[in-house]
# Entry
Amino acid sequence: MSRTRSIVLSFTALSAVYLYAFPSATIPYLALVLGHVVAGFVLAALLIPTLIRVRSAGWILVAAGAGLGILLTLTGASRPFSPLLYAHIGTSVLGVVILLSTGMRRPVVGFAALFAAVLALGGSAWAVREVRWRSTHRIENPDMPPASQAQEGDGVNGSFFPSSAQTSNGTTIPAKFFMESQACQRCHPDIYEQWSSSAHKFSSFNNQWYRKSIEYMQDVVGVRPSKWCAGCHDPALLFSGMFDTPVRELIDKPEAHAGLGCVMCHSVATVKSTMGQGDYTVEYPALAQLAASPNKVVQALHDFRGERE
Ligand code: HEC
Ligand code: HEC
Ligand code: HEC
# Structure
């Protein structure tokens, strides 16, 4: 019994360190979140007999941590509930440190040493999480702008040339990805409402000034140069490769009226410079496909980490 308890406790502790230090919008990460929660429930059940014969402060704190964890599964760990999240982490960590040190020959020294180790581990995890994020997401302009357009983005042979925009894996992205802003509406209704009548919504061929400009441009210089405009105006057409077709042939398709949906801006993984020519990299993450899934089970799993209004 106590052996199972220790194993489950070790798993929750190790998974917690990983979840804190390496957050990512990936399916393995989501699976580990669920694993941590399931292990937490199992641990809470295993702790009930211990609590009846209250003996160890360590187990009581771990049980309190588990209780706060169960509460978190009801509220969600979004920003308004971060005090609850940190209380859960603090109580659980303190419980584990006390548990480990009471087994030692000199508990006080052991407690001090373990506490220092936890601080060091916590500090490193914070550094891995925050410092790495901040350094990789800094926009650093090159010393000089490129001498010619051919040196921007993927270069002359790139799928999106002459736009500087790139995709993170170098391939195209289905147009549908940029057209599912209503997937966000469920939880961000007011932002969706504002966006619905915004210039961003009307950035592509649902904007007659833009439409006429591109039609004229394509008549005069051909389709390719107009892809430069698409890097900012038409993500659904550009990244799916549809923009290679003259716009007059596309004008009735919904993709041509997509505008700048929520995931256009919210999938920009890096901004390569601030020179203003659409110099960014866009990512097509697997979890984004989950959010938009029509499958109720998949949606419930996805929502588990999100809002309950
Ligand atoms: C199931 C509900 C849900 C859906 C669907 C959803 N969100 Fe959110 N979103 C949230 C919650 C909850 C937060 C706040 C998280 C927090 O406070 O920690 C949030 C926060 C955000 C943030 C702010 C993040 C930050 O770090 O400040 C952005 C940006 C965002 N959502 C964009 C989107 C986009 C784009 C979509 C559609 C693809 C979307 N959301 C769909 C629930 C949702
Ligand atoms: C670097 C990003 C970027 C590129 C590239 C770009 N645009 Fe724009 N465009 C914008 C922004 C941002 C606005 C909105 C400006 C404002 O309202 O002040 C805009 C506005 C417009 C408008 C006015 C729309 C309206 O409703 O008022 C037209 C027309 C337009 N662009 C055409 C083009 C054409 C044609 C090209 C290619 C030759 C192009 N744009 C390339 C970012 C870009
Ligand atoms: C043109 C680009 C663009 C589009 C389109 C866009 N966003 Fe954003 N969004 C941003 C930027 C930039 C920020 C960060 C603003 C800041 O930090 O002050 C942001 C912030 C947010 C936040 C966090 C707000 C907060 O209070 O912290 C949410 C949530 C969000 N967007 C959801 C959406 C949703 C939902 C849509 C579609 C209906 C959408 N966005 C469309 C660029 C965009």
Notes: The beta strands are 166-167, 268-271, 280-282. The chain has a mean pLDDT of 89. The chain has 14 helices and three strands.
